TrEMBL record:
UniProt xrefs under PROSITE patterns: DNA_MISMATCH_REPAIR_2
Species classification: Eukaryota, Viridiplantae, Streptophyta, Embryophyta, Tracheophyta
Keywords: ATP-binding, Chromosome, DNA-binding, Meiosis, Nucleotide-binding, Nucleus
Entry protein name: DNA mismatch repair protein MSH5
CDD domains given in the database record: ABC_MSH5_euk
InterPro entries: DNA_mismatch_repair_MutS_C (IPR000432), DNA_mismatch_repair_MutS_sf (IPR036187), MutS (IPR045076), P-loop_NTPase (IPR027417)
Major localization listed first in the record, in broad terms: nucleus
One GO-annotated biological process of the protein: chiasma assembly
Annotated compartments: Chromosome; Nucleus
Family: Belongs to the DNA mismatch repair MutS family.
Residue span(s) of domain DNA mismatch repair proteins mutS family: 219-235
Natural source organism: Aegilops tauschii subsp. strangulata
GO molecular function: ATP binding; ATP-dependent DNA damage sensor activity; mismatched DNA binding
Top-level taxon of origin: Eukaryota
Keyword Nucleotide-binding: yes
């Protein structure tokens, strides 16, 4: 059978007496197939050899599938073992290359990290500034303020990563780490979803609601800029109410909360509680003005509150 990229016109086909149009095929390139006297002779001699080949291929594949399925439990076990081994080796290589340390897991609901780092962020910058974390019986609700790009979100994420890595048996990016057993890690980090047809603020509300209902003293709760997706007054009220709810616990969960809503520190939005601790990401601002372009970010977590939000 012969094929052409273009269909032969009727006038030309009459001149080619041996050519007979068979069929056309629409693929990446459209082709037109024709019989000639020689191809008709081959068809009579060999038959439809192409489709015979396809039938044989399908038969072989069916036979192979049937044979493989006989060993499905063993193959599944081998694949799972290989995946687990690959994961363990990857964690070991990263831990050795980046000077991770073995964390200490304890039954006490505490968290002490010395010079903790963000496992991913430190791979993308020339110099990463580590930070300490200390959460014991007092100061379990950490309110972190500071300007944009000062490192607030990176800090709370790095703490969560250290806790998570410790619980899966991995070394952690820090000089030392004592991690209390954690039952859940709750996050309200401004997630976006194209499938739920909900705004970022609505998703945050659902996540914080789940957090408030189910968090225990062994939980780790992360809130990044909660309340910024609505009116400022409403956001302050929601954030202040959330903090007050946690502060009323006899033994609150470990809470890391970053915010620009510094108004919560005025007008008695927050209760007086030993559970609340305020921190800020330090910056050098010579003139003390939010519009100053000479601001230098130090990325260091220090006690206190940011006087300006920008």
């Amino acid at each position: 059978m012969c094929f052409f990229d273009e269909k032969i016109s009727e006038a030309l086909l009459i001149g080619l007496q041996d050519f007979e149009f068979a069929f056309s095929e629409d693929g990446e390139e459209r082709r037109f197939y024709y019989h000639t006297q020689k191809t008709r002779e081959l068809d009579n001699l060999l038959g439809d050899i192409y489709h015979k080949i396809l039938d044989m291929e399908r038969a072989i594949i069916r036979d192979l599938v049937c044979r493989v399925l006989q060993f499905l439990p063993q193959l599944t076990k081998a694949v799972n073992f290989a995946a687990e081994l690959d994961c363990i080796l990857s964690l070991a290589i990263v831990a050795r290359q980046n000077n991770y340390v073995r964390p200490i897991l304890t039954e006490d609901s505490i968290l002490e990290i010395r010079n903790g780092r963000h496992a991913l962020q430190e791979m993308t910058v020339d110099t990463f500034v580590p930070n300490d974390t200390k959460i014991r019986s007092a100061g379990r609700i950490n309110i972190i303020t500071g300007p944009n790009y000062s490192g607030k979100s990176i800090y709370i994420k790095q703490v969560a990563l250290v806790v998570f890595l410790a619980h899966i048996g991995s070394f952690v990016p820090a000089d030392s780490a004592v991690v209390g057993l954690t039952d859940r890690i709750f996050c309200a980090m401004g997630s976006k979803s194209m499938t739920t047809e909900q705004s970022t603020f609505m998703i945050d509300l659902h996540q914080v609601g789940t957090m408030l209902r189910h968090a225990t003293s062994r939980s780790l709760c992360l809130l990044d800029e909660f309340g910024k997706g609505t009116l400022t007054e409403d956001g302050i009220g929601l954030l202040g109410g959330t903090i007050s709810h946690f502060a009323n616990y006899d033994y609150p969960p470990k809470v890391l909360l970053s915010t620009h809503l510094t108004e919560i520190f005025t007008e008695n939005y927050l209760p007086q509680s030993e559970h609340i601790k305020c921190c800020t990401m330090s910056v050098l601002n010579p003139d003390g003005q939010a519009s100053n372009e000479d601001i230098i970010f130090l990325y260091r977590l220090v006690p206190g509150q940011a006087l300006l939000s920008f």
